[in-house]
Structure formats: structure tokens, C-alpha cells
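User: AraC-type DNA-binding protein, Gilliamella bombicola:
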Amino acid sequence: MNISLISPEVASSDSEPMIISASLKSPSVKVTERHHHSRGQLAGTLQGLISIEVESSQWVIPATHGIWIPPDTQHSLLGSHGPFYGWSIYIQKSECNNLPNKSCMLELSTLLREAITRTMTWNNSELQPEHKRLMAVIVDEISIIPQVDIALPMPKDIRLLKIALALSNNPSDDRNINEWSVWAGISRRSLTRRFTNETGFNFTEWRQKLRMLKALELLVAGRPITEISLNLGYDNISGFIAIFRRNFGVTPGNYQKAMRNNRPWRNFNDTII
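Assistant: Predicted structure for AraC-type DNA-binding protein:
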């Protein structure tokens, strides 16, 4: 389904309001063609993973994070992995001067997430002073929340992208590299070499990072850790915990507690729980 959340004309308008918000829930996979607009955009999903291409980079974004797209930056939504339930806010170009000037992944704070959710209840009502103050808070929060390096580059080779999208839709798929090469019609040697060249990770590392992004989403949703481990293709929970901690510096259980208590997981000390 190729549907824009707002019209191109509105997305390129620098008139009031400062922020335009939109959300969409659809049982269909959503894609948008490559485009750009003069408003800056922060995009995310309320559940599931989405693949977005921004200029020459392709990233997978979990529900715990958002991607910032500066004004006039070429981008497209390659697809949602499963039904689409996403949101975007569009910020006046004139208000983007203090925001990141390059696309980046942002760790969504509870404050930012709740403020964005509030704007989506306003519909077309006339903006009051309190509405405008909350919009200013959103812009300030985007300017200070941490940028994180957990983006997962997507390969560009159509055969490798086919594999990457299949794994994004089903991270627990445990086919080995030989099986994937046969399925995609590419030699193992070419798959290995191209995957590393195009993503910066070898195939095994890339699949593990994808599973970790999905784990973040499931933990925030409150799913039991044992269930998450099995759903992501890990045979034992201890292996999953070890890999999660190696990637994020915290155990899955303590990450989940941090999210439940609205605390920053980066500073969450395992020893004080």
C-alpha cells in the first residue's frame, strides 16, 4: 500500500502550525516512494519494525526509536514488516535550525513519545497557547535526546535485500548461509562478500543485530524474556541474555524494568536492581 500520511503540499508548507502530526494503522504492509519535503520529519512505529531509506542508507527502525529526517532530504519507506502502525511529525523548516542536520536514529524519551501522542488527539481543532507550548517542548526534546548507533543498514543488492527483508519479517528463521544463498540465487562467496561490503556486518552479525532490535520492541511490550528468546530463534535463554547484554550493556530484564519505570536504560546499573 503506497499512501503518504499527509499530502506533499502540506509536508512542504512552512506556514503554521509548527508541527503537523499524523498516524496510520493498516492491516497491509505500507510503502512510500522516494520523495522529499521542506518540513523536517520524525518517523516511527507504535509496533513492529519498518525499513526506511534515507538518501543512500537503508535502516531498520524498532518501535522504541524514531528516525529524524532533516528538511529537503530524499527518503522512502521501503516497507513495514507486517501490518503498519506508524506515526510521523512534520516540523516547519524554520524551526529545524537547532535540530540534527543529518539523518539519525533517536532514542525516544517517554516525554517525547507522550507529547507526540498528545498532538495526535488534536485533529483539526484550533490551536491554543498550550498546544503551541507543547510543540515547542517537542522541538526542544528532539534537539537534546541521544542519537544512537543501533541503526541496521540494509543491503542494496536485490538478492541480499530479499534475504534481509525475509529475516526482518521473521527474525527467528534459522536457515544457514548456504540455504539462504540457494534461496536467493546467489553464491555463498558472493553473499558473504557483498553482505559485509554493503552493510558493514557479516551475515551472522547482521542477523543477530536484527534480532536485538526486535527484542527491544518485545521487551517494551512487556513480553516474557523466555518467550522473546524462543520467538527470536534462540535455543536457550542464557545465550539470548548474553548477546543482548553484549549489544546494549544491560540484561533484558533490567532493560525492561528501566522502560517500565521510565528510566534511561543507558544509565541503568545492573547492580542496583
